[in-house]
From TrEMBL:
Organismal lineage: Eukaryota, Haptista, Haptophyta, Prymnesiophyceae, Isochrysidales
Main location, first listed in the record: nucleus
Keyword field contains RNA-binding: yes
Protein name, entry field: K Homology domain-containing protein
Molecular function GO terms recorded: RNA binding
UniProt-annotated stretches for the region Disordered: 1-24
Biological processes annotated in GO: ribosome biogenesis
Native organism: Emiliania huxleyi (strain CCMP1516)
Length: 200
C-alpha cells in the first residue's frame, strides 16, 4: 500500500531566502527626482499593498530601496517591483509602468537611435523627430497599433510591452529612423497589428 506524500506549508519569501531579507536598489536619475516626488504614492501603494514589500527613498545614495518583509508571500515580487521602478525611472508614466506588476511577460527594451544608423547632429535630430512625428502623432500611432508604450529620451528609445508587440514596434521605429515615410510605416503597422489581434 502506497503512503500519501507528506504535505508541507508553502514557504514565505523570507523563509525561502534563509530567514534573511532580500534587498534591491533602483537608482534615480536627476531628471526623475521631481516626477518621483509627485508620483510617490502611485508607486508606493502597489508595492506595499499588493506585493507586501518595504520601500523607501534613500536621498543620500539617490536611489529607491526595496526589501522583503515577513508579509511578502513570493520572492519573485521583489524583482517585479524593481522592474516596475526601473521602467518608471526610464520615463514611463506610473500608470503604464504598473502594468509590469499586473501582467505577466511584460518588459522594457531599450536601444539607441545610433545603433540603427550612425547619425550625427541635425540628421540625428531629424531621425528622432520622424519617430515622434508632428505633435507626437507617429509615436502614438505605433503605440496604439502595437499596444505598447514608447519613451523617447534624447537619442534613446524605450519600449514597454510583450515580446511579440515590442518586436513590431521596434521594427516600425527602425524603419522611421532609416527614412521610411510615415504613411508606409502605418500601412505595415495596420497589417501586422490585425495579424497580432487574430493570434490573440
Amino acid at each position: 500500500m502506497l503512503e500519501a506524500p507528506p504535505q508541507f506549508e508553502p514557504l514565505s519569501a523570507q523563509e525561502a531566502a534563509g530567514g534573511k531579507s532580500e534587498f534591491r536598489r533602483v537608482s534615480v536619475p536627476p531628471h526623475r527626482y521631481t516626477p518621483l516626488k509627485k508620483d510617490w504614492m502611485q508607486l508606493y501603494t502597489p508595492i506595499v499593498e499588493q506585493l507586501k514589500l518595504d520601500v523607501r527613498m534613500n536621498p543620500r545614495k539617490r536611489c529607491v530601496e526595496l526589501k522583503t518583509s515577513q508579509h511578502t508571500a513570493d520572492i519573485d515580487v521583489l524583482q517585479k517591483a524593481a522592474d516596475f521602478l526601473r521602467a518608471y525611472m526610464l520615463g514611463f508614466a506610473a500608470a503604464d509602468a504598473v502594468a509590469i506588476l499586473r501582467v505577466e511577460d511584460l518588459y522594457v527594451e531599450s536601444f539607441s537611435v545610433t545603433d540603427v544608423k550612425m547619425l550625427k547632429g541635425d540628421h540625428l535630430a531629424r531621425a528622432i523627430g520622424r519617430v515622434a512625428g508632428k505633435d507626437g502623432k507617429a509615436k502614438f500611432a505605433i503605440e496604439n497599433a502595437t499596444r505598447t508604450r514608447i519613451v523617447l529620451a534624447e537619442n534613446k528609445v524605450h519600449i514597454l510591452g510583450s515580446f511579440a508587440r515590442i518586436k513590431v514596434a521596434r521594427d516600425a521605429v527602425c524603419n522611421l529612423i532609416l527614412g521610411s515615410p510615415i504613411s508606409k510605416v502605418q500601412t505595415n503597422l495596420r497589417t501586422v497589428s490585425s495579424r497580432l489581434s487574430q493570434r490573440m
